[in-house]
Specification:
By secondary structure, the protein is an alpha/beta fold. The chain folds into two domains: 16-244, Zn peptidases (Aminopeptidase), CATH 3.40.630.10; 249-318, OB fold (Dihydrolipoamide Acetyltransferase, E2P) (Beta Barrel). The protein has helices at residues 51-62, 79-83, 106-110, 117-130, 155-164, 209-225, and strands at residues 28-32, 39-44, 71-76, 134-141, 148-150, 169-172, 196-204, 244-255, 261-263, 272-273, 279-283, 286-289, 295-298, 310-322. It has an eleven-stranded mixed beta sheet, with helices on both faces. Helix 1 (51-62) crosses helix 6. The chain starts with 27 loop residues before the first strand and ends with a strand.
C-alpha cells in the first residue's frame, strides 16, 4: 500500500486574527451567555494538517456565534503545527514533537520531567478543557474514506452518537497504545461522569466534502446541546441524516513492530472481510489476518509508519440503528 498523493482542495484560513483571547489562552475563545446551561467546546487542529475543523471554527468566530444558554468555547489546538503546513509535505504538519492527541492523562500533563511543543500547548488549554461538559473534536483522515464518529469505549459515547445521527458509522474503541486522546480525558472517559465527548473523522484531510461534514456535525452538536438554535447557522450547514447508523466495536489494534509492514491491498477504511483468516497484510514477513468473520478495517494507513504506531484497527459490527426521519 503506497501513500497516495491527494489533491489539496481547501484554502487554509489565516487564523492569526484569533490569537488574542479573553480566556488568557491563545486561540481559545469562551463565550458565556449568562444563562444556565452546559459548557460546550468545538475543537479544531488537534492535528496541524487537519484543516476542515479550522475552517469551521474560523467561520463561527468571524460570524460571532454566541450561545443562547450555557457557555461556548471555540478553539484551535495545535497552532504551531498548523503554522508549519507545507503543501509539498502535507503529512509533516500533523504535529511538531509528538502527537497532541496522545498526551491526555493527568499523570502525563502533571509530569514536569516531560516536555514537548504539544505538552506545553495541552497544559495551557487544560484549565479550559477541565471546565467543559460536552466536547466535539473535529478531525480528518489520512486516506479518502467515508466519515465516521469515534465514540470511545463507553455506552454514553454511543448514546450521544445515536442522538447526533451522523456520520453513519460509529466506531467504539479504547484508543491507542501510544497514549490517551483528548476525547477520553478525565470525565469524558469516566462512565460515572455526565461529561461526554465525540471525535469526528470528517473525511480525507484536504477534500472539500470534509468541510461539509464538519459544518453539519458542528451545527447538529451545538443544537443538540441546547446552547444554540438551528436558526443560528447559515442555510446549508445542516445536511440530511443517513438512513441508518452502523455501530462498530474495535476489538484490537494492529500495531507495527517496525518499518517492515505492508497491506495486502490499497485499503482506505471500512472494508469488511466476510471470512475469518483473511490476509490483510504482513508485519516483519508474518501474515496479519482477520480474527473473525465480517471484520471491518478502521482507518488503515501507513503514512505515520514507525514501530509502535497503530496502522489499522479491527472492528466487529454490533448493531444497526435506524435514524428517525
Amino acid at each position: 500500500m503506497s501513500a497516495q498523493a491527494y489533491p489539496i482542495e481547501l484554502a487554509f484560513p489565516d487564523i492569526s486574527v484569533h490569537e488574542r483571547s479573553d480566556t488568557g489562552v491563545a486561540y481559545v475563545h469562551t463565550f458565556d451567555s449568562g444563562v444556565d446551561g452546559p459548557h460546550v467546546m468545538i475543537n479544531a487542529l488537534t492535528h496541524g494538517n487537519e484543516v476542515c475543523g479550522a475552517i469551521v471554527v474560523d467561520a463561527l468566530l468571524r460570524a460571532k456565534l454566541r450561545p443562547r444558554r450555557g457557555k461556548l468555547t471555540l478553539a484551535f489546538a495545535n497552532v504551531d503545527a498548523y503554522a508549519r503546513f507545507d503543501p509539498s509535505k502535507p503529512d509533516a504538519a500533523r504535529f511538531v514533537d509528538q502527537d497532541f492527541n496522545r498526551v491526555w492523562t493527568a499523570q502525563t500533563l502533571d509530569n514536569a520531567a516531560l516536555d514537548s511543543s504539544e505538552l506545553r500547548r495541552a497544559r495551557a488549554m487544560r484549565p479550559v478543557i477541565d471546565s467543559v461538559d460536552l466536547l466535539l473534536d473535529l478531525h480528518s483522515m489520512h486516506e479518502k474514506s467515508k466519515p465516521l464518529i469515534v465514540a470511545g469505549p463507553l455506552d454514553k459515547g454511543i448514546a450521544l452518537s445515536e442522538k447526533l445521527g451522523t456520520p453513519a458509522t460509529v466506531i467504539c474503541d479504547e484508543g491507542h497504545p501510544e497514549g490517551r486522546r483528548m476525547r477520553d480525558y478525565e470525565g469524558f472517559g469516566d462512565p460515572a461522569s455526565p461529561k461526554n465527548a465525540l471525535l469526528i473523522e470528517c473525511g480525507q484531510h484536504w477534500e472539500a466534502s470534509a468541510v461539509t461534514v464538519a459544518r453539519d456535525v458542528t451545527a447538529r452538536f451545538l443544537i443538540l446541546s441546547g446552547v444554540v438554535e438551528d436558526k443560528d447557522f447559515p442555510e446549508g450547514w445542516v445536511q440530511p441524516l443517513p438512513d441508518e447508523m452502523l455501530i462498530v466495536r474495535v476489538t484490537e489494534p494492529v500495531v507495527a513492530k517496525s518499518l517492515d509492514f505492508r497491506f495486502a491491498d490499497n485499503y482506505t477504511g471500512l472494508e469488511v472481510f466476510p471470512e475469518a483468516g483473511s490476509v490483510i497484510g504482513w508485519s516483519d514477513g508474518e501474515a496479519v489476518c482477520t480474527p473473525y468473520p465480517d471484520c471491518m478495517l478502521v482507518m488503515p494507513s501507513l503514512r505515520q509508519l514507525r514501530a509502535g504506531v497503530t496502522v489499522v484497527r479491527l472492528g466487529r459490527i454490533e448493531k444497526r440503528v435506524a435514524n428517525a426521519r
